[in-house]
Amino acid sequence: MSTEATIADDTPKGADVEPLRLLAEDADDLHIISAALQDAIMRPVDIVWEPSWRRVTLQLSRFCWECGGTRVMSAMQFGDVIAVKSRRLPRGPEHALELLAMDFEPGEAPGGRVTLMFAGGGDLRIDVECLDAVLTDLSERWPARVAPTHLADGPEPA
Question: How far apart are CA 18 and CA 3, in angstroms?
Fold first, then answer.
């Protein structure tokens, strides 16, 4: 796992933190990036598939779990992409997509399939010749209006 930023769990709220820059070359690396991107928000138009360049780029508003309640604009790019498919994702530019997790399922080495899972049950599947993914923060941080919450046992009964 390549990282140019040190992430400390005890970072005071609002403290200066270096921009996050991570590289994923295997499933373990991708799971670390997945944790950093949990609850990131994007729109369908923020997903760009460039077949001739064999890459997929995502622009996201990342919730900075490591910074105590801020958000930052980030970009994630996958290289060596063979195919991209979506299932049950809205296409309208006004729809918000909330990223829950990413997973890598190995295929014929060194390739496989990256699956991005979104709230509401939609997913984006990216088939790669090999896993080559980069995440980087692009902007200054700003206070998040609301911190994401995760109910351990599902919603409370009405």
Answer: 11
